[in-house]
Write a structure and sequence with these properties.
Elements lengths: L6 H5 L1 H9 L4 H7 L1 H4 L8 E9 L2 H21 L3 E8 L6 E8 L2 H6 L5 H15 L3 E9 L8
């Protein structure tokens, strides 16, 4: 006897396996895990997007290294910070983008900006900026809560 499965049956397999491993009945598992199976609406976070245009690859690499320290600190001590990610432009290796999502603008201004890691990182970036080695641009916005987050 040959057993065949459709792609949709196989895509649900990890959830069934997880339910079995957790000892949860399949009905209650799917009721409790509906958020795993459908998109979630975003909150109304305050978002900051920063672009850093460097003059040298050495400064880019050092900024990434220094930024990782801040990111580790934020992950540990700033639960109001929902998303904190750095990326390198795919068209310009000297350009970095940072996306930051906060519970509120007030948390960014009053807590994040006074954190020890930020207070160590920002002067380093400011020194590069003052020396003409990096140009910093950015914008922020208040999310409306429309759309989805996967």
């Amino acid at each position: 006897m040959r057993i065949t499965h459709s792609k949709s049956q196989l895509s649900i397999f990890p959830y069934v396996l997880l339910g079995v491993c957790l000892g949860v009945g399949l009905t209650s598992f799917f009721q409790k895990s509906s958020s795993l199976l459908s998109p979630r609406k975003p909150g109304k976070a305050w978002t900051l997007v920063v672009t850093l245009q460097f003059e040298s690859e050495t400064d880019v690499n050092q900024a990434i290294t220094d930024w990782k320290v801040v990111a580790d600190y934020c992950a540990k001590y700033e639960p109001f910070l929902y998303h904190y990610e750095i990326g390198k432009s795919d068209s310009d290796p000297l350009k970095l983008h940072i996306v930051e999502r906060y519970e509120s603008k007030e948390k960014y201004l009053n807590v994040h900006k006074s954190g020890s890691a930020f207070l160590e990182f920002r002067p380093k970036l400011k020194a590069l900026q003052d020396a003409g080695k990096v140009k910093i641009e950015g914008f922020s916005y208040q999310e409306l809560g429309e759309g989805f987050v996967m």
